[in-house]
């Protein structure tokens, strides 16, 4: 990839939501309450755990034997976070975490819930779903539905032909380096992220495709990274078209059932009835942790590889420079130069995976704001480092 020109828009939407629930059609809420960014904190606390009551979705079916997560050695109750001692309860309160789980070597070293949330409930993931969606691209390559991610995306979504996506590869959409112009500023009611799910789709066309094919090109493909939630939604259309299956059915078939997730998940759908692949899988915290463990173990489910042999090595390695030292962007994964990787969603959702330490940290939450770049966000990064340090020291309770 050529040296990248970096464009970063730090907005409510830029870390991870494809959806203001009222902008995706088929909403189950009154018009005055459809934009989840304007829900009160109490509304978010209640609705994040039952998003399927407020927006349509498809079931990601679990089934068969559940992948057990045995108890491991208890984790310390106090860590040094950002140079200061911080108890786990104090950290969860500061993050407004509804749930936090730490796995090491596949064993639960810490699991706790708050905000009236419990282990049998689901919580919506927001842009954590992006990393699951990109993994389904790898599965589709492994299964032969997609020949190569270096194929032009127009080969599989011909409706994009004659648009800014001519000559853009699947790889470039995965890394958000298509060169197609996009405005992710959610504060601007005329921005792309505010408009793209709320347009009337052309007949027989997904609403995302209908919008994205009208966007102009601003840079050569592969030369400029811009966070584009709309492109993650194109990934979902790509997988569905290639496989002939809904994303929910394909996720169930390839991962949810064979890996042994504990419960069904829900994937919110858009105005066209297709899953919003950039957002809003609702699942148990333990199943988010299981997905992290699935990635940590190399994408093996029921003893069989789900992904091509080299997929994860590329997907979880920096493919685009995002302008943050030590960080980057892979195939819809946020990367760290130490080899760790994260799926991130607004309001505090996340899955952090550290292969070197065989470590998975999954969190659900409801931050006071969608993004907290000056407080909760940096504290979470410091917490990840603190957990890594505790693992290195062999610390136990």
TrEMBL record:
<feature type="domain" description="Beta-lactamase-related">
    <location>
        <begin position="89"/>
        <end position="362"/>
    </location>
</feature>
<dbReference type="Pfam" id="PF00144">
    <property type="entry name" value="Beta-lactamase"/>
</dbReference>
<dbReference type="InterPro" id="IPR050789">
    <property type="entry name" value="Diverse_Enzym_Activities"/>
</dbReference>
<dbReference type="InterPro" id="IPR012338">
    <property type="entry name" value="Beta-lactam/transpept-like"/>
</dbReference>
<dbReference type="InterPro" id="IPR001466">
    <property type="entry name" value="Beta-lactam-related"/>
</dbReference>
<protein>
    <submittedName>
        <fullName>Beta-lactamase</fullName>
    </submittedName>
</protein>
